[in-house]
Amino acid sequence: MTGALLVAADLVELWEPGELDDHGWREPPPDGARPRWSGTGNLQLNQGFSEPRGADSGGRGPHEPARVEDGLLFMPLDAEPHDGCSVRVRGEFYTLSQVRKIIDPMGMGLDCWTARTTGPRHG
User: Fold this and answer.
1) Phi and psi angles of residue 55, each rounded to the nearest 5 degrees, phi first
2) Distances from the Cα of 12 to the Cαs of 9, 21, 49, 84, in angstroms?
3) Which of 2, 47, 60, 63 has the smallest C-beta neighbourhood within 10 Å, fewest atoms?
4) Which residues of the chain have pLDDT under 70?
5) DSSP secondary structure of 37-106
6) How far apart are CA 108 and CA 95, in angstroms?
7) Tell me, what's the pLDDT at 110?
8) Domains contained in the chain, CATH given
9) How far is CA 107 from the centre of its chain?
10) Amino acid 26: pLDDT
11) Any idea what the Cα angle at residue 86 is, between residues 101 and 60, rounded to 5°?
12) Is the torsion defined by CA of 115, 93, 69, 44 positive or negative?
């Protein structure tokens, strides 16, 4: 039996990271900046982080926890992402980390980039 993997095609827009602020934190891309790359990728979201404690993480109890979406983003080789880049997928902005190139071990032309995505905190 042969298995098949079906993945959704997501429109991805990729921006270079912004400048460092006074504290050394990387800023998001400036307003009005154009994406460096756009094309088709695939975002696989995880359940992410959820925290109901207000004092620790901004949650408002068990029925309104703070949450951060995260996942893995797969992009074609011409995207050439790197750590700290921002992407917009499905209308949400995410920051990339742990970016790496994956080489198809079967040589079937399925090489791609993969990156961990961390989204904005909600709550």
Assistant:
1) -65, -30
2) 9, 26, 23, 15
3) 2
4) 1-7, 24-28, 47-68, 120-123
5) EEEEEEEEE---EEE--HHHHS--STTS-EEEEEEEEEE-GGG---TT-EEEETTEEEEEEEEEEE--TT
6) 29
7) 87
8) 10-122 (2.40.10)
9) 26
10) 66
11) 120
12) negative
**Tokens representing 88?**
């917009």
Task: List pLDDT tens digits, range 2-35.
Answer: 444 556 799 999 998 877 778 766 666 777 778 9
In angstroms, the CA 68 to CA 83 distance is 18
How many residues make up the chain in this entry? 123
Share the mean pLDDT of the chain: 80
Distance CA 10, CA 85 (A): 17
